[in-house]
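Repro case for the chain-ordering regression, as requested:
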Amino acid sequence: MADSRAAPIEGIFYTGESSQGTQAVLDFDARSGRVTLTEVMTGSAEESAALVKQPRKKTLFSSLLTDLTIPPRLANTRRRLALGNGAAFVTQDNDSIDALAERVLALSRLSVGDATRGFSGNWLHRLESNRGAVAACFVAVIVIASVTIIYGIPIAAKRIAYAVPQPVQNSMSEGTLELLDSLYLSPSELPSEEQARVLALASAAIEGVGITSYAVELRTGIGPNAMALPDGTIVITDDIVELSANDDELLAILYHEIGHLQNRHLLRRVLQSSFVSLGLIVMSGNVETVDTLIALPTFYLDMSYTRDFEIEADRYALQSLKDRGLSVDNFSAIMNKLEDSLSRIGVDEDADKPTSRASRRQRELLKYFASHPLTSERLALVEEYRD
Amino acid sequence: MIDDDQTMSTPNQSDVLIIHHPLYFDGKGGEYFRIWIVNVLLSIITLGIYSAWATVRTRRYFYANLKLAGEGFEYHAEPMQILKGRIIALISFTLYSVSSALSPLLGGIAAILLIFAIPPLILLSLRFSRRNTSYKNIRFNFQGGWKEAYMSILVWPLLSLLTLGLLFPLAQVKLKRFIINNSRYGTENFVFTGTFGDYGKLLLLYIAIYVAAILQLALSLTVGASFVGTTVFILLIYGGFFFIQPKYMNLMYRRTTLREHGFESTYTGIRFVWVWFSNILFIVVTLGLFLPFAKVRLTKYLTENVTLKMKGSLDDFTAGEAETVSALGQEVGTAFDFDLGIGI
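-- result from build under test --
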């Protein structure tokens, strides 16, 4: 390109008034710094022959190159040069446009402050068309995503959860027990002296932890189950009381639920799912909520995070039993019984997800999709706390 | 790839000659993957801020590669507009999640507010996407008003619910009329001529399949073949959906005209099922890395089944007057923008 005239660029000129395009060539004259668009006559061979004899070249547009806005390159899609008043020149000749853009850059360097509308650069295109750079981006994305999912989100959620004041946490479960009562639960059917005994046991356990705001409620209706609401309410069902052979087994369950409360699991779970959804929305640039592609990973990650919480609650329960000089076998005993009743009834311990009646082998396969760690895994955990 | 050239060679002969121009998509999975992975990385590094620029770059790529009669579409939105829309949407989303997590009552109120916000949001989004799309340097536009938006998006579906689905076909016609008749290319409006009868027939087909599914389930349960019965039931329900859904898409295109030009559409259930499910499967297996390829595949499928029946020429459309919309409205609309909402 030592020549002052760059090679003409072929394309289509649009006036901005109609959808009719005109075949045109764009010429750049370095001496005057002007670009000129000239019409190219097309038509049948006969017409072309006539043209050769009588060449009529109509100038469609002319301006200083520095007045043009040259859009950055995007793969090999056509470039549209806006010519003002809606007029445009569209061309597939990306390489020539890039060469022209380089000239704009050079010119704008010469006349500082003059080229406010100049060329914004092709750095993205250079990145995208470089194999090594693309591979590096790929690796970086994988590493950052993994670290964020495994460490970033759980740690951030934990920090935030412990900073949330208790009244806000209480309001999270406002009306939840009433809602559960109206939908699934009914008052305990245990004899009143048995109820009093369980409540006394629970109160003692709670006092032992040193938090007075926790309270235990007895209910029936959802099989053997226990749950903890963020305001400190622990719900225990009749079935689970009947399932436990002694008070120590019931304590194991209670400590597990207290573990959920002490570690603010529900709040952390809500925060973590929100972070995952937000992250995916930001990354995919998609806000449509009913999108399988976002719902699916959110669901799996939620399941996996929930398993971590269950393990944390298990550890809390086991440590509490150990601290009070009780045998950790109580924990494994009640977990085994829960597992057995589960496979009979086909209902998960927390009754929030129905479990399939699949065989143990299938359950083994499905363990990454289950919110509760399998009992065999729990039993291994118990061994850790055995003296 | 569809060869467009032979159909191009017969212009100016007669005004009644109909030339079929298939829409086609020139994008390539590998090419888009490079754009995508750079977009994702820059979005992560900038904590999501770059996602607005990423969206514009992605759309520009998809629109430019979507071609009709040899010419591509163009996307003109500015990233800053989209970024502002996203920030507003993000704040609303956070307020909504927090309020519904904190109190069921607040959550309920927010949900009701959201329902009433949907029609204007769809309206703004349609306006934004149409106005920022052009073909042959002529912009599309959307001229629907608030009242019509509420009627067709909220009131008519509610009426069809209250009449136990009797008015459902009419609600569908109203919605399509709202979306299509208010869309313009330059100064020409698209026209939708679908009727209650068209949608009624499809609804009857749906009902027939559902009734058949339920009857055979009841029958097989009484003879004790519950496994076969349930399997066939599920197949019929899902099969019915994928059998009829493409018919709705075909109906929409075939009943749409732009001045003297019409559309043909050839979606089929079996192809749709294949593209959709294989995409999901590959995305899951590759932990999301197939996403850009899936998007290209789906776009190819969605575009290459639509044909413009050109009567005369596409050269005589004139540009509408440039309209300015309130910046805030337009920006909120962008956050709820549909991907590739071109033309129709």
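Ordering looks correct now. Chain B touches chain A through 55 residues (CB under 8 Å).
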